[in-house]
Write a structure and sequence with these properties.
Function: Catalyzes the reversible oxidation of 3-phospho-D-glycerate to 3-phosphonooxypyruvate, the first step of the phosphorylated L-serine biosynthesis pathway. Also catalyzes the reversible oxidation of 2-hydroxyglutarate to 2-oxoglutarate.
EC number: 1.1.1.399, 1.1.1.95
Distance between the termini: 13 Å
Pathway: Amino-acid biosynthesis; L-serine biosynthesis; L-serine from 3-phospho-D-glycerate: step 1/3
CATH superfamily of the largest domain: NAD(P)-binding Rossmann-like Domain
Bound molecules: 1,4-dihydronicotinamide adenine dinucleotide, 2-oxo-3-(phosphonooxy)propanoic acid
Catalytic activity: (2R)-3-phosphoglycerate + NAD(+) = 3-phosphooxypyruvate + NADH + H(+); (R)-2-hydroxyglutarate + NAD(+) = 2-oxoglutarate + NADH + H(+)
Enzyme class: oxidoreductase
Largest sheet: 7 strands, parallel
Length: about 375
């Protein structure tokens, strides 16, 4: 039996299925792995028994991924699984910021008792005249799973679309409409934009990336949409730009003590991924990642360890070593296996950044003294006897 601790409501209806051989536990101390969403794990006391964490969703700034890597904990996310949901709400925010829809609905609600409301609405409506997205210039920062979809949707709405992403993946570059014009600098992207939308992760080079300098380059009265993370924008600069009219609207998914006091805002409850479809997609992907890791040692979509697969564990024994990406690891591991006279059927070694993963199948079970010797290799963080 394997034990899973869930943190956060993974789906609205509470449906989360791991299937046979798995049980949910209340206490993290009793779990092998964690399935979670947005809870902040910085400062969380993670028990040593936890081998893996799957974040149902994209952003992992709520998880100390490098610290966990050094403890031999593999962190997964579910790339792309909620991207369509975010794309749709971002487009909705752009339309809300352009058409006086909310204000017009408010007028109707406030005049509900007027017997001549139908006639008076005809007079009131000029206050809610907006403008169309078609023909406007939009800048998209970050052309990953969400940004590439937003950019393509904006193209299909007839907008002039500019994208900025110095680290774009080949996969996302392929997925991008040819009508999206790629720009080499953040400043060139911002210049003259009527809409600016943010789709980058929160990390050292993106925190505060939208500040006065960037906002001043936008077209006067531009709309800023932030469904990425609250940290990406300098909130004081946004507040000033709204007061000055440099920004006409700020649509954000993050209700911070500062954003809630700003004028001309549409603020949602971190609901970008809030659809049944996105929740189900994220949960499905995260659960299958966890199961393949716990049962076979395979890693897909980890944010702190390399991808690695040897298929189903069919040999007598499968061992995985999580270790630092330093020289001579394979040499040290194979020397210990040779001392045990172990016959290795297959072995893979992959690395990503500071961390690496070595997994092998052997014809027979290894002695416990061999496992202990593997654990004693200085740069080894964890050894898992998968089978
Ligand atoms: N509001 C919500 O509910 C949701 C918010 N998000 C947020 O949106 C972010 C993006 O999500 P995805 O598109 O799924 O992630 P992704 O990883 O597919 O795409 C992120 C893109 O940002 C680019 N990037 C990284 N650093 C950059 C920089 N300095 N300048 C420009 N581009 C840079 C990367 O190259 C990548 O293409 C997530 O990290 C998360 O913070 C994601 C999903 C739901
Ligand atoms: O996927 C992301 O990065 C999100 O921000 C979604 O967060 P959530 O899972 O809805 O709490």
């Amino acid at each position: 039996m394997r034990y899973i601790k869930t943190i956060d409501d993974i789906t609205k209806d509470g449906n989360v299925e791991f299937g046979e051989g798995y049980e949910f536990v209340e206490r993290t101390e009793d779990a092998d792995a964690i399935l979670m969403r947005s809870t902040d794990l910085h400062g969380y006391e993670l028990p040593d028994g936890i081998r893996a964490i799957a974040r149902c969703g994209a952003g992992v700034n709520n998880i100390p991924v490098e610290e966990y890597a050094k403890r031999g904990v593999v962190v997964f996310n579910s790339p792309g699984a909620n991207a369509n949901a975010v794309k749709e709400i971002v487009i909705a925010m752009m339309i809300l910021s352009s058409r006086g829809i909310v204000q017009s609905m408010e007028w109707v609600r406030n005049n509900a008792g007027d017997p001549d409301i139908l006639v008076n609405a005809e007079k009131a409506k000029k206050a809610f005249v907006g403008h169309e997205l078609k023909g406007k210039r939009i800048g998209v920062i970050g052309l990953g799973n969400v940004g590439s979809k937003v950019a393509n949707a904006a193209v299909s709405l007839g907008m002039n679309v500019y994208g900025y992403d110095p680290f774009i993946s080949v996969e996302h570059a392929w997925a991008l409409s040819q009508d999206v014009q790629r720009v080499g600098t953040l400043e060139d992207l911002c210049r003259g934009c009527d809409y600016l939308t943010l789709h980058v992760p929160s990390k050292a080079d993106t925190v505060g990336m939208i500040s006065t300098e960037q906002l001043d380059l936008l077209a006067p009265g531009a709309v800023l949409v932030n469904f990425a993370r609250e940290t990406i924008v300098d909130e004081d600069a946004v507040d000033t730009a709204l007061h000055r009219g440099q920004l006409s609207w700020f649509a954000t998914d993050f209700a911070t003590p500062k954003t809630v006091l700003m004028p001309n805002t549409f603020i949602t409850t971190h609901s970008g991924a809030g659809t049944g479809e996105a929740e189900a997609n994220c949960a499905d992907m995260a659960i299958s990642e966890l199961k393949d890791y716990l049962e076979n040692g395979n890693i897909a979509h980890s944010v702190n360890y390399p991808a690695c697969s040897m298929g189903k564990a069919r040999a007598a024994s499968r061992i995985a070593c999580l270790h630092a990406n330093v020289p001579n690891m394979i040499g040290q591991i194979t020397r210990i296996l040779a001392d045990d006279n172990a016959n290795v059927q297959r072995m893979v070694n992959e690395s990503a950044g500071e961390n690496a993963y070595t997994m092998f199948d052997t014809d027979e079970h290894l002695d416990s003294s061999t496992i202990e010797a593997l654990k004693r290799i200085p740069a080894v963080y964890r050894v898992r006897v998968i089978k």
